[in-house]
Amino acid sequence: MTHPTNPSTPAARLSLTNLPTKPAVDPAELTVGIVHLGLGAFHRAHQAVFTERAAQLSGETRWGISGISQRSTTVRDQLAPQDGLYSVLTRGTGETSIEVIASIREVLTAPEDPDAVVTRIADDKTAVVTLTVTEKGYRATSTGALDLTDPEIQADLTGRPPRTVVGQLAAGLARRGGDPLTILSCDNLVANGPFLQRLVHEYADAAGLKGDQFDAARFPASMVDRIVPATTDADRAEAARLLGVQDEAVVVAEPFLQWVIEDHFAGARPAWETAGAVLTADVAPWEQAKLRMLNATHSMLAYLGALRGYDTIAEAVRDEELAAAARALISTDVIPTLTPPDGLDLPAYGESVLERFANPALKHKTTQVAMDGSVKLPVRLLGTIQDRLRAGAEPDSAARAVAAWMVYVARSETVDDPQADRLKAATANASSPAALVDALLGVDSVFPKELQDDPALRRLLTTHVTQLSE
Q1: Angle of helix 396-411 relative to helix 296-307, nearest 10 degrees?
Q2: Which CATH superfamily, name and number, covers 284-469?
Q3: Topology of domain 27-280, per CATH?
Q4: Which pLDDT tens digit goes with each residue over 277-309?
Q5: How far apart are the first and last CA of the chain?
Q6: Beta-bridge mates of residue 387
Q7: Strand 251-253 to 278-280 pairing
Q8: Cβ contact 36:129 at 8 Å
């Protein structure tokens, strides 16, 4: 992929021969010990940064990353001419900073060579596999089981070199010898480690794959947090100015960086805690606070903001009415459902979330955050609604967020969602707010029966859809 550059932008590309500063760990000395599935901007601004800093602090050279792009060749084409190097442009309310990252030592593109992905996972030198494939990449049903009707899962089960992440993991485990593997999900899913373990075992059973490695593998849970908006040409131009060389793979991020990991590894791992990661026996309280406060509020602002014509989350949260709606969601619906982890002040955390969203340097688009609502809503908002209804309360603010999604789906000409066809078919003949609520509430792959049958929720949704439609 090429991008237009400013005439003053340096022509030389970032590479091992064009390094602005020499890294503490020589990239040429790094060997691959980690495979990462889902080589998007978030991984490059998060886990790869932790891995880079841990290598610098520990001096270990065995934790280079083999990054797997699951769909396109874009990232490979950006990184290959740069010897795998790229920069992270950190934008806060103060001065912008930049850091060159060298921890990614190999890039594979799964559609081009799916067997090479399995070979890397099976390699004895690979001790850890990490994943950021988004919620839809796991190809699970609304009940959390592997979707055996998914066309790609079915295609993998016919015996082709697998192209789904669960197929790749299961095939790699079946082929693997030597030390057991740690498989670490970094996606926004409840109990993501046990969830992924269940999917991999269900796939292995369906495929007839067996081996001691399936029982020996460990699947820790984890929680990740950093806002990483899409990179623009202006970002590339600024990176070139700061580096003195051109970086086509630059990613942009906020200063905040957090990783909480269950200390449940099968063997060796990077010393991520030296770089600031939190190793804990129980990720669940951290995970639930983040999903229900940060991610749910992010989704709410995306849908309400998009309906008001705001291009970015920062614009939406500067709208006093929308900021008040976000605060009400956090204080009246979410916090009563949470048990705070040690050291986390929930009201203060909620305010910090809104402050981070308001960072004008991060142009995180409302439409980008609004993607994949059918798989995001169940883990971000519907659990809160269920807990509040069971407690005898009316989750008015959370219902408003879901209603905003409903109106957004109905109004959008195209919906970027794995269930887009079903959602558009459901809303095609919805001629009133009540009909729209009935149509989308009836999508059982999104809403559990408990919520579909709840009259209080239906009433709240209809009220808010009516208001938002006006």
Answers
A1: 50
A2: N-(1-d-carboxylethyl)-l-norvaline Dehydrogenase; domain 2 (1.10.1040.10)
A3: Rossmann fold (3.40.50)
A4: 999 999 999 999 999 999 999 999 999 999 999
A5: 42
A6: none
A7: unpaired
A8: yes
